[in-house]
Design brief:
Layout (H helix, E strand, L loop, with lengths): L14 H11 L4 H9 L10 H21 L3 H6 L8 H15 L18 H9 L5 H11 L12 H13 L32 E2 L13 E2 L7 H17 L6 H19 L9 H12 L4 H4 L20 H20 L30 H18 L4 H14 L5 H6 L5 E4 L2 E7 L1 E3 L5 E3 L8 E5 L2 H13 L23 H9 L7 H17 L25
Parallel strand pairs: 1-2
Antiparallel strand pairs: 3-4, 4-7, 5-6
């Protein structure tokens, strides 16, 4: 089955098509022109006047498009209307046609409207998602990678694939004002993960062309060099991680910070054992803005596929502090085993973060009030996103977190068996959860350690949940007891995704999956021009509890 292509070919009209528009501009009858030049040999009957005019106007529209693609709005304006032709206007149009025939096919530019290069239907959908110009599209792709199209109203995977192919064809054409390329390696992440190039193991040194995850790092065998010392430390780091439970949040967090530090050390040609307080200060500054961005930063993607990047962007102060605490623990473990002769943190003082977090309950000079206002606006936006099923899921989650006061770990474990319906009331019986040492919400599974709490579901919350269940093909009045209240609408076509669906027909979200969904919804919310005032707010899903209500 052929796939419709909604891109507009930059090639200009043929000589015959130019002749048709020129003849019409000079006053010849449309039906005579069309029957002579545009009549299909397979058509037995001559074209009517209406059919002739429609075909000529289609050529006129292509001509206008070609003029705009070549930055000639003056010529495009001449042909916006071919009515009321005077001799002077006729001569001008004929001269303009001659100049257009001499032009080469146009090249897209960042300030071009998307309607110049994509079909009307696709252009309208892109514009509705806040992507009005090619520069907006490039910026969004570089920032979001494969997920760039999610949240754009009525834009699906097939249309996103059309845009991907077009961007790949324009990689050598699109340039910034300084002449440099504007499409980063993230464009390669637009391809489905299974089609991306596989990650290859690479030596841990400064010659890395791109970053590699910890499991793909190779150590240098040559003794006596800094590469050999760093390679030996790589083996110790892997032993340190072996002491954590594989797959746990703590293990994943420690692995992430360790591989970032090892890559940074390799780029500096500096083993961990030679680091001092001033090196940690440099690393602290680096975490705020990892540069060069083309090497360090990119959208999230599979670790075994390119282009994987260790950062999605610079870290805020609280995240930098958390990263340094992990590194302090790593250096302490290496010091205990004699790998280090000194502890680099002995002379390092971690900078104090003066800004308060949004959910610490402390007066922060209006920051929390601003965050509350933004979250209220965010929830209203989710409520109005009826045409986007994925945002209906986020809206249902916002009610469970915001109105019922549930944590993400509670939400993902709540099932139809926790619902209590009857006598006109709708309640949610939920177990109370504890928090482990890594900060992850975990169920208290002991028989005497479960505290039951009841939350009442409002009519709006019930409506939001019912819409989400309908998207999953489940009935609200007969929700299976084992069915999670929230679940993904589809699983990725990977072996892991299909195995998960086979083993768990009614699969739900993981805590990290639901967290990513809510953060992605927030990014699309603030990406819209009308919500630009909220971009300074550092959103976390827990903030939804504070943004429950507000002035309508």
């Amino acid at each position: 089955m052929s796939v419709r292509d909604d891109t507009l070919d930059p090639s200009k009209l043929t000589r015959t098509e130019f002749a048709v528009v020129r003849a019409y501009a000079q006053g010849m009858a449309a039906v005579d022109i069309a029957n002579r030049y545009l009549l299909d040999p397979d058509e037995e009957e001559a074209l009517t006047e209406h059919q002739a005019v429609q075909r000529i106007l289609q050529l006129r529209d292509r001509l206008v498009q070609f003029a705009l693609q070549n930055n000639r709005p003056d010529i495009a304006a001449m042909f916006d209307s071919l009515k009321g032709r005077s001799n002077v206007a006729m001569d001008r149009r004929v001269d303009a046609l001659s100049s257009l025939e001499r032009l080469s096919p146009g090249r897209p530019a960042l300030d071009h409207a998307v309607s110049l290069w994509f079909g009307p239907s696709l252009s309208r959908r892109l514009a509705a998602g806040g992507i009005g110009r090619i520069g907006d599209l490039v910026e969004r792709v570089n920032r979001r990678g494969a997920a760039w199209w999610r949240g754009v109203p009525r834009l699906g995977a097939k249309s996103a694939d059309v845009v991907r192919h077009w961007l790949e064809r324009q990689r050598e054409t699109l340039h910034a004002r300084d002449g440099g390329p504007v499409l980063g390696p993230q464009v390669g992440a637009l391809v489905a993960p299974s089609q991306r190039p596989r990650m290859s193991p690479a030596p841990l040194d400064e010659r890395l062309l791109h970053p590699v995850p910890l499991e793909y790092m190779l150590h240098e065998a040559l003794s006596g060099s800094w590469r050999s010392a760093l390679g030996e430390e790589l083996q110790w780091v892997r032993q340190w991680l072996d002491g954590k439970r594989p797959g746990s949040h703590t293990w994943a967090s420690y692995r992430r910070e360790a591989e970032r530090l090892l890559l940074w050390a390799a780029r500096r040609r500096q083993p961990l054992r030679t680091m001092k307080a001033e090196d940690l200060s440099a690393y602290w500054d680096f975490l705020a803005d990892p540069q060069p961005a083309a090497f360090w930063q990119g959208p999230a993607g599979p670790r075994d596929r390119m282009p994987w990047r260790p950062f999605e962007g610079g870290l805020r102060d609280s995240s930098r502090q958390a990263a340094m605490r992990v590194i302090r623990a790593l250096f302490g473990w290496l010091r205990q085993r004699g790998v280090l002769t000194h502890h680099p943190f002995d002379g390092f003082v971690m900078p104090v973060v003066t800004a308060r977090s949004h959910d610490d309950g402390v007066d922060d000079g209006g920051i929390a009030d601003s965050a509350d206002t933004s979250v209220v606006a965010f929830r209203r936006w989710l409520e109005r996103s009826d045409g986007t099923p994925i945002w209906r899921t986020a809206n249902a989650a916002s009610y469970l977190i915001g109105d019922c006061g549930m944590r993400i770990g509670e939400v993902v474990l709540a099932t139809g068996g926790h619902l209590r319906l009857g006598d006109g009331s709708r309640c949610l019986v939920r177990p109370r959860f504890g928090v482990d040492e890594s900060g992850i919400v975990m169920p208290n599974l002991g028989p005497h350690r479960v505290e039951v709490n009841v939350a009442t579901l409002s009519d709006d919350a019930w409506t939001a949940l019912s819409r989400h269940w309908a998207d999953r093909g489940l009935a609200a009045d007969g929700l299976p007891h084992a069915a999670p209240l929230l679940g993904p609408l589809m699983l990725p076509p990977t072996s892991r995704g299909q195995a998960k669906r086979a083993s768990l027909p009614l699969v739900g979200y993981s805590p990290s999956g639901l967290d990513r969904l809510l953060r992605a919804a927030w990014r699309d919310f603030v990406a819209l021009p009308e919500h630009a005032d909220h971009r300074a707010v550092r959103f976390t899903p827990r903030m939804l509890v504070r943004g429950q209500d507000g002035e309508p």
